[in-house]
Each structure stands twice: as C-alpha cells, then as structure tokens.
Amino acid sequence: MEEFVDYYEILELEKNAPIEEIEEAIKKTRKRFRRLEGSPDAMQRANAERMMQLLNEADSLFHNSSKRLEYDATYDSGKSDSKRDLEKDARAATAEKDWTSEAKDYFKNGQSANACFAAREATRNCSTDAEAWLVWALAAYSMDKYDESIFAASELLKLGSNQATAHRLLGDSYIMIDKYADAEAEFLKAQQIDKSDYTIMARLVDARYLQGKFDQALTMARNLHEAHPDYGPVLSSLCRCLETDVENKMSSKDNAGYFTNMKQIQHAELVVSEMRALGNIDKADEEWIEKMEGLIDWARKRHYIAPARWFWILCGLTFLFIISGSSGALLTLVLFFGLLLYAFFFVVPTGWMINARKLGELAKRTGLQ
Asked: Which of 53, 104, 165, 283 makes a 20 to 30 Å CA pair with 17?
C-alpha cells in the first residue's frame, strides 16, 4: 500500500486553505529547503532532496481540482493510517545537530566552505551563538569573502563577545577592500580593548602606511620593533616604512629616483645602516639595500662633475693675480670672492643637475631604482 503523505502538514496549512495560500506556502518552503541541498551533511542533503520532491508533488496535486477533491476525500482516513512529517523531521535534525562544533571542526581542517555553511546554520538556530559568528567571520575571510566576513564580525560585536577579535577581523577585511581609514578605526578600537596584543598594533601600522601616513607609520613601527624585535610582521612593516621614507625624500624624474643633494644621500645612508642592523630581513629587503647602496655610491662618485668653463678661467686668473701681485690686494680679494659666489650659485647646482640627469639615465638602464 502506498504511504500517505500529509501535504497540508508539510506546508503548515489547514485542509481547506485557498490555492493562493498553498502557492505561497510552497514557494516559502522551497526556499527554506533549497539551501539545505548544499549541506555538507549527507542526511541533511537527502532530507532536503526528498522534501523538494514532495513539494513538486504538492504543487501538481493542488493545481488539479479533481485530484485535490479525491485527496481531500481520503485525507482524514489516510492521515490516521499513516502520518509523515518530513519537514518537522528536517527541522528537528537541524535543531538537534551541533552545527557550531561541526563548523569549528571544518574550519580547523581547512574546509572553509563547509565551515561557513555550518556556522550559518548554527546562527539560524541560535542568533546569539558567538562562537558560530566568529567561525563564520574567520572562514569567510579565509575564502576572500570580505563583505560576508564584515557582516559576521559585526553581528559578533552586537553580542558583546570577542570584541577585540571582531574589531581586528573588521580591520583586516576593510584593508582587503581598500577601506584603510575604516581599518585604522577598527584596529584602534581593538587596541583599546587589548593593549597587550602587539599584532593588532602591527596591523595598525599597515593601515596608516596604506593611507599615506608614512611618518606616523614609521614612528610606530620603530617603537614596536624595539619592543618586539623577533616578531616577523613587525620587522616587515618597519622595512617597508623605511624604504618608503628614503624614496619619498629622493628626487624623481620620469619615474626614476635619484639623489640631488648631500642631505638626501646622508639620510639614505642612515636608513640603509639601520636596516642592516635589523638582521633577519627577507630577500626583497636585502635586494633593495644593495640597489640603494649602488645608487648612493654612484651619486657620491659623480657629485661636482663638468663645472662650467668660466669656473676654471676664473680660477686661473685669480691664481695669476695672486702670483704676480700686479693687481693689488683689493682686486685679488674681489676676484677671490667672485670665485666663491660663482661656485656657490652656479657650479654646485650645475654639478648636481648634471649628476641628477646622468644618474637618472643610469638608474633606468641598470635597474638601480
């Protein structure tokens, strides 16, 4: 004997419900069980697939008036003989299942998609489950679903639980979608909650650096490295800030960086020495140091090059007047000061300009900068 199926019970409707209510109930129930077809749990998927099949049967039955009359006529006796409530069973299975534990296990094993699904189910069953929201946020972030991670972390904050972690997750997600000011705000909130977590401060350095607040980022990175010299991310942030500090103080032309005065060279030398003293820097930072040392060496060797010919002529005349003594002390003094003024206003700038031009060309050829 074919088993009786209580379609009214499945749709949570009374026996005499109008067709409009039936259609709406079928649509609503389909939507609820469609998401369960993607469940990582085999039993859950099977129940969802079976329910979708029954909903199709109900749709066909209730849109055929003669079939519905026949079904209604045998409804009471059929219900008493055999009662089936798949939706109730599915809801019970979902409610009884420890989705939070499953979500944590999935995430621990690197199954982020399954972890997200299980965490969503856990929050549907209990919207105050802080652990489920946290796993959802972490799993979504690991899959580069930053908007979803922001949503879950924001819900976690509403519960007043794991606030430092939630603020940090929000900050990390905002950085990934280029909202650096929002990221800085979230890291500052996390820092106020947990002042001992220096990893939050390292992320705050990154957020400020990405906003272009280079001086603030560099000062903070130096202080942080002094307190935690063995923490890799802090060292990386400090090196990045130092490199940018040098490059921002260099002159540039046609996207090539070069030195145009001694102050720039001395600053670069100090930074290179500081980076050398850090130790344990990565290969990319080591290559940057080597290129910068080559650039500094080139600039120092080719400082005052090719001064104007009048400089040498003036030097020769002054020397002759000094030797001969025929011009008198006053003229010799005037020529001497004229030589100094000329050198200051023309020779030095000319030397740097020539140096800058040649250095820029060499830099592009050799890849120094």
From this structure: 53
What distance in Å separates the CA atoms of residue 52 and residue 75, rounded to the nearest whole number? 21
| Burial class of residue 23 in the structure, from the number of CB atoms within 10 Å of its CB (0-12 exposed, 13-18 middle, 19+ buried) | middle
Q: How far apart are CA 275 and CA 277, in angstroms?
A: 5
Helices (H), the chain: 7-11, 19-34, 42-62, 65-73, 75-81, 86-96, 99-108, 112-125, 130-142, 146-158, 163-176, 180-193, 198-211, 214-227, 232-249, 262-278, 283-301, 309-324, 328-342, 348-366
Rounded to two decimals, what is the model's pTM? 0.59
* Alpha carbons 351 and 356: distance in angstroms, whole number: 8
Residue 136's Cβ-side half-sphere holds a number of Cα atoms within 13 Å equal to 26
